[in-house]
Write the structure tokens for this entry.
Amino acid sequence: GRFIMEKLNGKIVIVTGAGSGLGKTISEYFAKSGASIVVTDINLLSANETLNQIKQKGGDGIALCVDVADPKAVDEMISKTIAQYGRIDFLFNNAGAAIGGEFKDMTLAHWHKMMDVNFWGIVYACIGVYPIMIKQGSGHIINVSSFAGLMPGGLMSSYSTSKYAAVGFTLNLRSEARQYGIRVSALCPGYLETPMHESALIVTDYYKKHDEKYLQKKHKYPTPEECIDHMMRGVLKNKCIIVSPRKQIPFWWLNRLFPSLGPWIWFKIIQRIKKKNM
């Protein structure tokens, strides 16, 4: 079409949180297109699993154990990538963690965890790759936020705040980066069927009960595989904010027109969840 899809063949791509879920799907998508993937995850076992699947299909890459909340580990990830491949074309800051529940049940440690992984992890990686991409005169940074970074939710104040911060940072960086030939995008997925749901820490009892019932239903949400083509089209078109699945987009528009609607709807949802699970 009008947009020439970038040839991904031979590109060097870092994906954080690539051991499972969306990060794994992104890694496989790029590998299939002929890119080399630096597969990183806090769990080396799952990073290696993703890498093995890539290699079985004829793809190329390396696996690294990286905790994005540790700036030294992030620096090391970048220097190892440069040592191995000499350049970085795409950085997917995809690693994330989730905590659900009421603000009154969250500790300061919960807040720090959310900001360390979902916000600072992105900043650390950007600090590391930015000078490299400036020197290259090219590169694309994709910060994976969330639909919760565009719209308020209930029972996720710390998570949503960290994701809002990621979007705000991305938009600011995008305006500066363009002069150096660097692209910056925010990828904002809605609820997807990924292991992040199971690993989410729920700190409020009635919400925990609700969540347990919900986890028993299979295939309530779209899978990353179902959304990846739509997401990557947005990435390769250099879209500023990519919302996926598509059916979330009208809610985003509505929220911008009527900012007080979201909190009111969520108040009603919380009342309903509470009534059913008290």
